[in-house]
Write the structure tokens for this entry.
Amino acid sequence: MYSENDLQSAVSAGAISHEAAEAFRAHAAGMRSAPVADEEHFRLITGFNDIFVTIAAVLLLAAAAGIGDAIGPGVPGLLVAGAAWLLAEFFTRQRRMALPSIVLLLAFIGGVAAVPIHFLAETEPQMSEATASLIGAGIGLLAAIAAWIHWRRFMVPITVAAGAAGVAGTVLALVLSGWMSVTGNTDPEPLILPLVFIAGLAIFAFAMRWDMTDPKRETRRSDVAFWLHLLAAPMIAHPLFGWLGVSEGENIGAASALGVLAIYIGMGMVALAVDRRALLVSALAYVLIALSLLFRQFGAVELNVALTGLVIGSALLALSAFWTPIRSALVQRLPGSVQSRLPRGVLLSV
């Protein structure tokens, strides 16, 4: 079985023409009765060898961390980052294995970020909350730089999302540090949710910029956008539902539960328009909690979990089965300038 990534690689290598690849995509889409763009492909695993290599790599990286811990502070991170880079030279750059590449990328960035964290944990310096936030910003920036270096060498799609997370963490920590220094307030909690929400919207906009450059979803840019959407979705969903009291486990009332459902429907409309299911998945836990509480309010105490699963499961399955016609009906009502930038489907007039 060949993936979209394999097809792109074959075209780049000259093994098949671009026209032949287009014909193959059209044939495959016709067999599935759904357009390639609407399938939202991303490469994660191509065979059990991916899992086998990933397990072996994790064992090796864990051993490197253990050896480094016996040597001194900061050494585990250096050894993990170095080992991850060397393994990526073969399994990512030559073999192009998806799952091992993701694990090795995360290990490299995590190893780089762990160096200063390990030093601080060992020395336990006395510092103010503002200073701690400032140091956190530096660590986030270091992680973002590591992601950029890794991207320049290996171009693993998830790397851009990892770098965006590092940049977002850096900005958030800088804002919190500045706010605490100016106001003298050492409790950053009131600012965290608004800042995370704004950062989520910024990353979503960044993801859309990648998506709009590849409306047919035939290149690596679509995979980059997928991971960015996956990062942005919980950053948008958590603050929204947190403000309604769902994320804190509070006993919300019927009005708040209906508010959760309204937000979820709104996020579903956005997910349909941009053809990305990450928004729906990231908010699913909150909706399950809200519906469960809503059924309990109406007296279905014993069956509240079962009824919640029945309603949400049926709705999501129906949405999946009729994703293309529902999305087409929605997109056709959008302005033409917006339609032309969105992923294309068989029923769209763009």
